[in-house]
Amino acid sequence: MKWRRLFATHNLVAASAWASKGVIAGSQLFGIKLLLDILGPDQYGIYVVIASLAGWIQLMDFGVGNATQNGIAEHREAARPTDPVIASLVFLLPALLLMFGLALVTLAVTATSAKMAFLQIAMRPGLDVLLTSCCVFFASAIGGISYKIWYAEQRGWWANLFPALAALMGLSLLLAARTTGYHDFLGVLLLFHAPPALLASVILVWRVVLVRTQVAEALRLRTWKPLVRRASGFFAFAFSSALVLQLDYIIMSAYASIYDVVSYNIISRVFAMVTILHTAYLNALWPVCTQALAAGRRAEVESLIRRGIGVGVLLVIGFYGAFVLGRHEVALLLVKDASVPLPAFTISLMAGYYLIRAWCDSWAIAFLSAADLTPLWLLVPVQAAVSIGLQLAFVRSFGVNGIIIALSLSFLLTVAWLLPLLARKRILLRG
């Protein structure tokens, strides 16, 4: 029985996800060194600001990826064909492309006249660099829908293999650029980010083409309607989450030096490896939880959530211990002259923040799996307001440490205790 549990589909998917995300995280970390070598700390600071836009551009799938994943998982549990759900993307993808085009025009107009420090820094390499970068980030966001489809089909090992291969391709191109002395800012950015974006986009087009004969059936069954309804909920949650998690660089750019931004980026990138691995595990659990809820196995869902929390805590503790002990070596490895400090106190604050995230992200899976997003719609905007207010208040006095403290407090004061309370009341203990 233990062996059967060990080799359950979601555990195999999680294991492949960890291997894949480990490759991706390692590529991103080594990519920091290559980018610092190629661009230098000042140009790398500008790259960090532009790359932070990727978190916002990820919103431009408007929740369609998550809605598609849940729709496929529910169709599988009910033994209904899933191809019409995928075929619904034929109607939705052109709409997403149109909305991104409008957003890009708005950004172009705003960036040329804005007084925001963030946009002024992002505009230094030129408007063409900023807009091209956004297009690459959008291709990555939309292409990611293909990986959600594989996860829903419980073939997540494919969704883990291809991003890892693409990350290695980007890293190899960066290595070649450093070797040849190539240092054009836009070219370097494209070398690193274009392979994952192009590969994911090609896979998505291929998946849609495979079900082209089901488009009429999707139109007859109106499978696109529940996708749109659910996608709007996922988007609202994702947007509110971005207000919590994606404003740090925008706020820092107005109050911190480029070197402080680079230091924060390196520390957060190291701990982002925790999020990458933990999210990979939670993504593998997500469709399993959806099917368990559809079958009424609610105790199983709480057990999976607690397992997710345990995995997250172990990851944070492991990375924290290794990072504190080896921070000087990390600094020397990534920055040739060790001109960017990596303070132990800042690392400790970041570890505490990621412990809180491991708890909250695991409990959020209950609501995402049940497509019951109402509590998240209500809680996360409140958390966002708390986070923004505290970040603006603390960054002036404590610098980047103030950003981390503010983010941690925004979780502790809101979702850290309310998510488990509401999950049990609305989902896990429902009759």
In short:
The protein has 431 residues and is mainly alpha-helical. The chain has helices at 2-6, 9-51, 53-57, 64-77, 83-87, 89-113, 117-122, 127-152, 156-180, 185-210, 215-221, 224-245, 248-255, 258-294, 298-325, 327-334, 344-370, 374-398, 400-412, 415-428.
Protein architecture, described:
There is one protein chain. With 431 residues, the chain is an all-alpha fold. It contains 20 helices and no strands. The protein has helices spanning 2-6, 9-51, 53-57, 64-77, 83-87, 89-113, 117-122, 127-152, 156-180, 185-210, 215-221, 224-245, 248-255, 258-294, 298-325, 327-334, 344-370, 374-398, 400-412, 415-428. The longest helix has 43 residues, at 9-51. The chain is globular and about 60 Å long. It starts with a helix and ends with a helix.
Helices and strands, in N-to-C order?
HHHHHHHHHHHHHHHHHHHH
In terms of DSSP E residues, the strand content is: under 5%
Task: Profile the largest sheet.
Answer: none
Helical coverage, percent range:
over 70%
Shape label: globular
Structural class: mainly alpha
Number of E-type strands: 0
C-alpha end-to-end distance: 29 Å
Question: Averaging pLDDT over every residue, what do you get?
Answer: 84
Poorly predicted segments: 1-7
* Rg over CA atoms: 21 Å
Contiguous helical run count = 20
